[in-house]
Every structure is written in C-alpha cells, then in structure tokens.
Amino acid sequence: MKLPILSALLASAAAFAPSQKATTSTALKDFSGALGAQEPLGLFDPLGLLDNADEERFERLRYVELKHGRICQLAFLGQITTRAGIHLPGDIDFSGDSFDSYPDGLAALFGPDAIPQEGLGQMVLFVGLLELFVMKDVTGDAEFKGDFRNGALDFGWDTFGPETKLRKRAIELNNGRAAMMGILGLMMHEQIDGNPVIGLFIEY
Q1: Sign (positive/negative) of CA torsion 164, 168, 171, 173?
Q2: In this model, does residue 80 exceed pLDDT 70?
Q3: Which of 58, 68, 57 is nearest to 131 (CA)?
Q4: Higher pLDDT residue, 56 or 4?
Q5: Do 182 and 78 form a contact (C-beta atoms < 8 A)?
Q6: In whole angstroms, what is the distance from residue 20 CA to residue 5 CA?
C-alpha cells in the first residue's frame, strides 16, 4: 500500500516546479506552460524526471500522476468515511462477518484482525481487471490522457468550453496531489502509537 502512494508522489513531483529553474533544461522550458504547472511553484521537477524528456514521456508521467491522484482521492474518502463509523451493510463473507467487524485503515489489510488473504486477493484481482479492461480509453476517442468516458460517462463535459475544461482538469490534478499527501499522512499517523491525528478526528 505504501509503495504505490510513494510512487504516486514521485510521479507528481514532475508536474510543477519553480519557474526560475526552467532555464536549466530544454525539457523544463518546453513544459513550463503545461497544464499543472501552476502558481506559485510553476513547473516543479526536483528529481529531474523531465530532463531530456519528450512529449510522450511527459504525457506518460502526467497520466500516472492523474491515475494515482484519483486512487488517492478514493482512498482518503474511504479512510475518513469508515473512521466516521460508516460501513457497507451486510456481511463480507459467508461466515457472517460484517463489514464493520474489521478494523479501519491499513489494519483491515495487514495485521491479526485483517480480512482473510483470499479476500485481499479478490480485491487485487478486481482492481487488475479494471486496470486492464475498464479504466482505459476503450473507444479511442479520449480528449486527453486519463479521459475514460468511453462515450458513456459524460456529466456535461462536452458542454464546457476549452477554458472551462482546462480549469476543471487543473482542479482534478490539484485535488489528486492533495489527496496523495493526505492519504500518506493518514497512513503514517496510523503507524504511530495512539493514532494522534485520526484519534482527534474520532473524538470530534
């Protein structure tokens, strides 16, 4: 769980950097005006992932950042929802174990009270199937990397103008970046005795 989050953060590091460093590399200068290179940082690439990068590599890194941001938004919402006492109704298995009988957070996957490994395997398989066959540009009509509407899920996107579309894509990128930091923070605090931040949240 931790490795995908850390890799997401590394990928997102290529999305925005201090604009005064744009002169150190031709690639940085080329992408300094790309979507996601926003104030106050501009294009931020401390690891040099865009050094000598072409458009294809930039689009690949952007796609990875966008996908990990979406995953982390779901993960963060899952954390705060279950810790607020909201769980799926019914049982998680045929033995009669309810969803709320398992701990929240990482403890639900790892530890003495975690769900059975067979259950974890089913979740990994399900996510893998989504990755291979569903969460992709099936129709070939995507407007940008990460556009998975596939002619079905639109929510009014085609009614927006170019500027509105860019603004909404930038909002999604920023929310994904915030979620990557947020879920990493929750995971780290969960490993500290007493769950200092999460414990305060539960008290309120």
Answers
A1: negative
A2: yes
A3: 68
A4: 56
A5: no
A6: 29
Which range among 4-13, 63-72, 89-98 has the greatest average pLDDT? 63-72
CA 100 to chain CA centroid, Å, is 25
pLDDT (0 to 100) of residue 196 = 63
In whole angstroms, give the CA distance from residue 110 to residue 188: 14
Mean pLDDT of all residues in 148-164: 86
Q: What is the model's pLDDT at position 51?
A: 85
Looking at residue 195, its amino acid is: N
Is 177:14 a contact under the CB 8 Å cutoff? no
How far CA 174 is from CA of 15, 61, 108, in Å, comes to 10, 15, 28
